[in-house]
Amino acid sequence: MPDALPSIDFTTLILSLSQTALVHLGEAPSPDGETPAANLSLARQTIDLLAVLQEKTKGNLSGEEERLLDQMLYDLRLRFVEASKKDGERGPEKKA
């Protein structure tokens, strides 16, 4: 079955939320194939949700899951800072 969905596990959840944050940062296409304009509020909310998962699952993850979550949060936070800088450079008159 070519359209089989991936198994549902913690890694899939983290990757899904990370992809959602990238879409909100304007760095990945949405499910319809379009790359939307950045929405930093939604990106921040998704990153914060991943941080809550990190905090609440501390000590209960495999080493691989912990590393994945750490790496995803690090990467998304860097991308968020860069997107925020770009958004600030455009000035308030050009923000959507």
Brief overview:
The protein has three helices and no strands. The protein has 96 residues and is mainly α.
How far the N terminus sits from the C terminus, by CA atoms, comes to 42 Å
> Roughly how much helix do the residues carry, as a percent range?
55-70%
The sequence of SSEs as H and E is HHH
The geometry reads as: flat
The total count of strands amounts to 0
What is the SS-derived class?
A: mainly alpha
Per DSSP, what share of the residues sits in E-state strands of 2 or more residues?
under 5%
Task: Give the number of helices.
Answer: 3
Tell me the major beta sheet: none
The number of domains is: 1
| Average pLDDT taken over every residue | 89
Rounded to an integer in angstroms, the radius of gyration calculated over CA atoms is 15 Å
The stretches of 5 or more residues where confidence is low (pLDDT under 50) are: none
Give a structural overview.
The chain is an all-alpha fold and 96 residues long. It has one domain. The protein is 64% helix and 0% strand. It is built from three helices and no strands.
